[in-house]
Amino acid sequence: MRRYLAAAVLALVAVSSFAQAATEAFDLSAICAGRRQPVGAAQASAVKLFEAPEGSLAILDRGFCAAYLESLMEANIEAALRKPNPSLDGLRLMAPDSVAVPAPVAPPKRWKVRFYMSHSFTTYFNSEVTFHSSRYDVVVKDYEWAERSSREFFEPQTWAKPGNNPAQIFDEPSNTYVVSIERDGHEFFLSAFHPKFFQAPNQVKQVNGTVDGVAVDGAVPLNRPFDGYYTVPGEMKLARNENTYREMAFEIGYGHRFKVFDSRFGSISYVPGVAAGVMVGSNLSVVVQEGKWWDFDDHGDSYGVQGFGGSLTSRIEINGPKERFGLYYENKLSYYKMEHGFMDGTQKYNLGLMGNSVGMKFLISGGKKKVQRAWATLTP
Q: Are residues 165 and 238 in contact, defined by beta-carbon separation less than 8 angstroms?
């Protein structure tokens, strides 16, 4: 609108009959639509003739009408763009600068359910054990636990023996089973570990307390080998002390998944975690009767909770395409505060162990889905 004000100069020449009409508002659109008569050598100006009932009005136009009509056109276009217009909307979709393209829509993140199964190689740390019963009231320093791996059940010749079958490879060895759910790297898991540990043979340890009423304070054998029926007062004669029957450690924990390598052929993930749990089982203890060599007192503890503790885990996974199958290695450092039966009394100790598990993993549900696509209009 400003351009025509700067560019236009009006020269009004009217007869006396237009004296009153000149004071009223002009219809500029009607005036600019009048006949155009070029004047001047350069024809930069023109005379507009406007017919009215009162007579004729001659206007010297030096660019006013062109600028005015152009401003009206721009105003009409802006108004049309502000108002909904189905026809114009259709034209906009067909215009080169307005292209309808499919835009990818990320699917919602899903929980992934995984199952792990492995065989565990376990090291049990020495501990101080307190035995308390009607015959024993002693503290044994640096007591040694040994692993019962039962790996012979992986051998086919063991399956052929009476009472054995191949299915025992899932129960008899020290295996670990884990179920986990994970989304966006946050993983929650439930593990079932089958530890088996017993008194290591041929131990000579520092013992303090009383055995069969005899004071003991020094390094003594825990289970002296047979030596011709000769017995010494205060001998430990602890033939067996083991936690192997249905021994289980159940833990619930949290880990965070880090993908360190990814390709269309597979991936590698690292998952550190922490867990807390409970140890359950049934302890068996056997001692030689007082003054005897071939007669034994034994006690099978009732099955139940033996202690509480936790673990720090560190797992490396090698996954196939889409993570449906993989192999893994896990290191676990555990600590449990144990208290359970011993003969007609109890035994207390802190159990520390390090497990190294090697096994397979399977993706149960929550695999990748095809990327959904939605139609969207992109306008620069």
A: no
Residues in the chain: 380
Question: What are the structure tokens assigned to 75, written together?
Answer: 């105003």
Q: Is 316 helix (H, G, I), strand (E, B) or coil?
A: strand
Q: Tell me the torsion sign for CA atoms 350, 356, 359, 361.
A: positive
Do the beta carbons of residue 339 and residue 305 sit within 8 Å? no
What is the Cα gyration radius of the chain?
Answer: 48
DSSP-H helix ranges across the chain: 2-7, 28-32, 64-82, 86-94, 156-159
- Neighbour tally for 281: CB within 10 Å: 25
Token pair 């994970």 in the structure block, residue: 182
Residue 320: φ, ψ to 5°: -80, -175
pLDDT digits (tens, 9 = 90+) for 295-352: 888 999 999 999 999 999 999 999 998 889 999 999 999 999 999 999 999 999 999 9
Pairing relation of β-strands 10-13 and 238-256? Answer: unpaired
Question: Minimal CA–CA distance to 349: which of 184, 197, 153, 228?
Answer: 197
Structural contact between residues 311 and 317, judged by C-beta atoms closer than 8 angstroms = no
Say whether 196 sits in a helix, a strand or coil: coil
* Residue ranges per structural domain of the chain: 2-83, 112-365
Q: Is 92 exposed, middle or buried (0-12, 13-18, 19+ CB in 10 A)?
A: middle
Beta-strand relationship, 372-378 and 55-61: unpaired
**Which tokens belong to 42?**
């350069």
SS3 368: coil
CA atoms within 13 A on the CB side of 67: 13
Q: Give residue-wise pLDDT tens across range 253-307.
A: 999 999 999 888 889 999 999 999 999 999 999 998 887 777 888 999 999 999 9
Whole-angstrom distance, CA of residue 132 vs CA of residue 144: 18
